[in-house]
Amino acid sequence: MKLSPLQISRYQYNPKLPGMLRHGVSEICVKEGEATQSVADQEKIKSLFPNTYGKKEITFQKGHNNASSKKQIVGVILSGGQAPGGHNVVSGLYDALKSANKENELIGFLGGPSGLIEDKYIVFTDEYIDQYRNTGGFDIIGSGRTKLETQEQFKIAEQVCKSHNINAIVIIGGDDSNTNAAVLAEYFAANNSNIQVIGCPKTIDGDLKNEDIECSFGFDTATKTYSELIGNIERDANSAKKYWHFIKVMGRSASHVALECALETQPNICLISEEVAEKKMSLSEIADYIADSVNERANRGMNFGVAIIPEGVVEFVPEFKKLIQEINELLAGSKANEFNELPTWNDKYQFIEKGLSEQSFKVFEALPQLVQQQLFLERDPHGNVQVSLIESEKLFSALVKDKLMERKAKGLYKGKFSVLHHFFGYEGRCAFPSNFDADYCYSLGYNAFMLIQYGYNGYLSKVSNLSKPAEEWVAGGMPITKMMNIERRHGEDKPVIRKALVDLNGKPFKYFEEHRQIWAVETSFTFPGAIQYYGPSEVCDLTTRTLALEKGE
Amino acid sequence: MKLSPLQISRYQYNPKLPGMLRHGVSEICVKEGEATQSVADQEKIKSLFPNTYGKKEITFQKGHNNASSKKQIVGVILSGGQAPGGHNVVSGLYDALKSANKENELIGFLGGPSGLIEDKYIVFTDEYIDQYRNTGGFDIIGSGRTKLETQEQFKIAEQVCKSHNINAIVIIGGDDSNTNAAVLAEYFAANNSNIQVIGCPKTIDGDLKNEDIECSFGFDTATKTYSELIGNIERDANSAKKYWHFIKVMGRSASHVALECALETQPNICLISEEVAEKKMSLSEIADYIADSVNERANRGMNFGVAIIPEGVVEFVPEFKKLIQEINELLAGSKANEFNELPTWNDKYQFIEKGLSEQSFKVFEALPQLVQQQLFLERDPHGNVQVSLIESEKLFSALVKDKLMERKAKGLYKGKFSVLHHFFGYEGRCAFPSNFDADYCYSLGYNAFMLIQYGYNGYLSKVSNLSKPAEEWVAGGMPITKMMNIERRHGEDKPVIRKALVDLNGKPFKYFEEHRQIWAVETSFTFPGAIQYYGPSEVCDLTTRTLALEKGE
User: Fold this and answer.
1) Residue A541 is among the residues annotated as catalytic for this protein
2) Is the pLDDT of residue B279 over 80?
3) Contacts with B, A 429-488, CB within 8 Å
4) 8 Å CB contact of A143 and B530
5) Burial profile B96-133: b = 16 or more Cβ within 10 angstroms, e = fewer
6) Predicted pLDDT of residue B346
7) Do A239 and B3 touch (CB under 8 A)?
8) Rounded distance, CA B35 to CA A392, Å?
9) What is the value of ipTM here, to two decimals?
10) What is the per-residue pLDDT for B1?
11) Which residues in chain A have Cβ-Cβ distances shorter than 8 Å to B87?
12) CB contact under 8 A, B526 and A10
């Protein structure tokens, strides 16, 4: 493999640890805080986690390390979608573990949680780890989406761990993976397995966030990468002055990514799914909202602009959600065959018209044909509509175009509307981690080992005070059960970590709300440029606007 | 407008000049070289450019500046698509001009060549220029695609220049714009207008290149931006191990962008349009070529990969070109209405079957329906197929899928083939220029002023030896007529700068050819990461692999 100059250079980067972890493993001691309670449904959560519930929050500080120096064998798993910095969690964990005791071992399970079940693994060495320091991707051991959630899986996991003499597992994942980490921790505790489980908060979506976890790793780098591209496109739009760019960004359930990109780049329009749901907006209302900006900018002589569309927004539109439900029912079971055998799109269209409620058909009718066909022609193995395949950037530009044509007919709009479409997602998940993510992730991994050494189980590695320089960061751990509540999932009550949606009363959204009317009609574009790893600290080490605003900065 | 930390920081960057231009305008003298001849059709070109043909090549060197120090008023125009570094050409020009004489003035014509004809302009000031130093985009004065080519336009241009006392025009553009610059220069010379014209070689496509012009500006930054994204996607592919990514990159007529990105990132597949044309490849042959890689990788357990598709490749496939021709004829004039009135796609399909030759219908039949419909439903104002709207990345993935299904039926292929599609173009045209482009463009602009001061007309600003550090670059000028030949355009013989296609015997393609068999079946991905502006020189100041290979490095 040929290495790029940047990759060679990034190998040399020394990630910054929180001040309190800088004196070496032997100089780190524990300060215990208060016993914790889950954020809701305390009794239920307590009964489900009798052995791991109610533990104390802890922080580390400088002092004599009085933990046992017994040999530790630790397993690590990457779970779910890639996020920049995963390799640094592993290298931080490895470095702490080796500096505590050269005999310690780190085992990486391959291809995600299934690697643990199938006992596919590698044993890390200096040479191997050094190839992955400060690089993007999860290719160090691969990742996967298998969920560890059944008693059967737990039993196998225990056997595999025992066979390797593993005394702790670190699970690097999102809200679901960390929920499962807590359940596994409880299982091990209940069975007196003497195996600890530590979680690390990962996701570019930014929706694993709460009063304890200031942000999940990867969000910083991914949003900076998307913002680089959006800023470049804004500059192009402002130079060519003839296109509207509709840009879809990743974020199925929460709009943190879209919001952060908007704060970084100040586009004319950014939809926020949570607001669409809160205001129960219809497709037509959203299209009118965008068309108002296009119209007013045209009046001012600017037939160009940029609109950011979060990937999952259509699922937050109540009438669209209902349409999807009706389509799923309309094509359930054998009815799908009947539909598929209709020879032409016209025949199919009539079948649809007959099958949908009047209200849903109205919604359907107004969709561009491309999206109508996507709804019916591409369905998942259960026959359901694949909402993630809907090109919502094209859907909205088509709806906006219809609105503008109506206005033009009435003499209300005289502009031109040429649109280009983009989708940014895969471009950002495996970028070289920003200095922030490189530092944060390395610290999370290093810290995870400290939690292991001190014998904690069912904890999330926690590094906070993140809007400050790394020196001032605070390292510690939080029982995962503290973040849990009971939610209805697939018809069952389940203890889960609450997913953090965009808070419409939070400071990041409020800032956006205060400014967006101006952004919509003026050209207030900001051009962040590419992520920088060297050079002035104000260019290289800043984290997100979201975090800065949340911290009141 | 809110400025990003990078933008503020880039304002401070001092672009590097060639060593010979570093001693101040008063210490630059001219060394004249040989008289030049056009690359072909010498007699014809000479007769068309009696006043500007055959002039000498010149280089600058350190020495006493003996040019007249009369007040200079210079106009500048940005022409055509955006390319990173345009702002630096303007600021280099401005700085040289002001350092020669504070009374000198730089006038920017707005919105491209039409600004000159319509006399829309601004006069540059320090304060204004300083907002654009080392930034991307052409928003400093805007750009446009109007062509300056008629005698009528030249006459107006002359009047406008006279009204401002402009004694020189700098045209920043691609091959067509520089061809037109030469024609305008000849017009001014023939009329004794005392107005000089100097061109600067711009285009991200990299196809304005010849023995004199080592590369056009913007190519470096644009390909680095695309390579960043392709590398990130490769890393994602190698982490998730479940997707093939088909990535279309800009480049309508030449595949320099695709080739450079391939050299930077080592993907499994990269199509080169020039090779497709040379080998007269059919769509089916191309699909088989890609399918071979997918198949062999699947055999090795790797159901993932990355393929780069140059935007214009389908136009280089002989059978596809013929199909387009036939479709254009099939729908010419009133026949389009007849076609449009057919009620269903089936009816239209039958019309097409009847209208095409057997061979072309065979090609048509094998296309995915999406592309079939794109060919017929979206046509330009003249009724022609809009080839640029064809989603060739989707076309090829669909054809490859068909090939794989055939192989599967025969038991020859057992893999999975899930594809994601991307198109990178607008993301790179307005990025902050790389150090290379920032330096090169500033030098081109600075140098353009030197050519003006020494009274040259119809020259291209030339900076060469670009694969070496800037200190060793060579600055000078070349008569544009030297790069010209006669080509048939729209049924007429025209003197034009020869467009540089990828040379299949050149070193960059040869390097690619030598390695691609391995890249196709192994995973040799390289991850360039984001463009860096600070830090080690080997990370920040390198130009493209194409240039390095061409220069034998």
Assistant:
1) no
2) yes
3) 429-432
4) no
5) bbbebeeebbbbbbbbbbbbbbeeebeebeeeebeebb
6) 85
7) no
8) 60
9) 0.96
10) 64
11) none
12) no
